[in-house]
UniProtKB/TrEMBL annotation:
Protein name per Swiss-Prot or TrEMBL: Outer membrane protein beta-barrel domain-containing protein
Length: 388
């Protein structure tokens, strides 16, 4: 359990230190604008409530969406409540219906504003169901832009593109033409561009000078791996242990997801490790290429620093590896080490492009024999640098 101690400390510290509340406001049902601090959760789905504090040091309270007409926090998060009809038609190709008609459900929702102006564009997401809405001045009603895929004869997929006719009517007086609207797909970037062309202002985060919005990062790391191996030969009732330290270089590609304030990412890496121990005639020689795949969660403790926790699995490709032990004066059984898979957890601290991390690789069997097993585990400590 000691290997989980560092992870527990990191989580506890991050809960205390990470930046979560930012200046914002909400408008209540009495049409009063209440300013304060709102927890910026960078919502993936439309929020059902918000966490609000009257001041930075005050106790937070939960405010349900039924008490909110509108709220705003940060540069890109502005939500407005509407009572809307949402098309709940399936989007999975295996579940498409044969009818082009939307399957409406009425509900109250806090829609995210994507572009605002005389005409406004909104975004709705509920656990994989994505829809777009628009409103016109005085913005007291929002209507869904209708797009639905459905099946015809022979399982061919057709589209109900009613949203194009809706947008044509909305912007006809501004000069929108049929060829122009036919080129607009049901995607946020194309819909936003259309609304901006006709006077709306896009809500987007301002990028700091010198910073890139690229969600893909390449990291290089070097470190040390403190490994241990417990070998058991059931046919001869012998146990042999080995431990040591090896050098561990690694490359890693990381993709940062564009939700929840960029706190979640996935990564895949590749490295090289040569674990070798020779003691009293016993030999443990394990060279392998670890390929870790995992998810990482970042918890910010400053503008340029964060604490991370991670978990995942690894494929470990053995390279001409073996182990042997002295059984008797005339016998030293030898066993070939096989490819293996394992699980790991870890954490670290990042400042700008530099990181210091630790990763614990849980025990895994690196032999493929009926009567013999070899449980290998390692704790990796490494320094990492982000190239881009």
């Amino acid at each position: 359990m000691k290997h989980f101690l560092l992870l527990t400390v990191l989580i506890g510290f991050s809960c205390y230190g990470q930046i979560a509340f930012e200046p914002g406001y909400y408008i209540n049902n009495q049409n009063q604008k209440v300013e304060g601090w709102i927890k910026n959760s960078d919502w993936l789905n439309n929020p059902e409530s918000i966490e609000f504090k009257s001041s930075e040091t005050a106790q937070s309270t939960t405010i349900d969406k039924s008490e909110i007409q509108e709220f705003s926090v940060g540069e890109v998060h502005r939500y407005k409540r509407f009572y809307v009809k949402v098309d709940t038609s399936a989007t999975n190709s295996n579940d498409l219906t044969v009818s082009p008609a939307p399957e409406w459900r009425e509900e109250s929702a806090l829609l995210k504003a994507l572009a605002t102006g005389k005409s406004a564009l909104y975004y709705y997401r509920d656990h994989g169901l994505t829809r777009y809405f628009f409103s016109k001045e005085p913005h007291d009603h929002a209507e869904q832009l209708v797009y639905k895929e459905y099946k015809g004869n022979g399982q061919q997929v057709f589209q109900n593109n009613a949203y194009k006719q809706q947008l044509l009517q909305l912007f006809l007086a501004d000069g929108l033409t049929v060829p122009e609207i036919n080129a607009v797909d049901y995607q946020d970037n194309q819909l936003i561009a259309l609304f901006v062309r006709y006077g709306a202002v896009e809500l987007k985060e301002k990028k700091e000078a010198g910073k890139s919005g690229n969600p893909l990062h390449l990291n290089v790391s070097v470190g040390a791996s403190f490994f241990g191996n417990d070998f058991h030969d059931g046919s001869r009732e012998r146990n042999v242990s080995a431990s040591g330290t090896s050098f561990l270089p690694q490359l890693e590609m990381e993709y940062v997801f564009n939700f929840n304030r960029h706190k979640w990412s996935m990564f895949v890496g590749a490295g090289y490790q040569d674990a070798k121990v020779q003691d009293n005639g016993n030999l443990f020689e394990y060279s392998f290429v670890p390929i870790p795949v995992g998810v990482r969660h970042s918890m910010f403790v400053g503008k340029e620093s964060k604490i991370t926790i991670e978990a995942g699995f690894s494929l470990n490709i053995a390279l001409d590896s073996k182990l042997s032990y002295v059984y008797s004066q005339y016998s030293s059984p030898q066993f070939d080490i096989s490819n293996s898979t394992g699980v790991f957890i870890g954490g670290g601290f990042t400042w700008k492009s530099f990181s210091l991390g630790v990763r614990y690789n849980l025990k895994r069997d690196i032999l493929n024999y009926n009567s013999q097993s070899s449980k290998f585990s390692a704790t990796d400590v490494f320094f990492k640098y982000r190239l881009f």
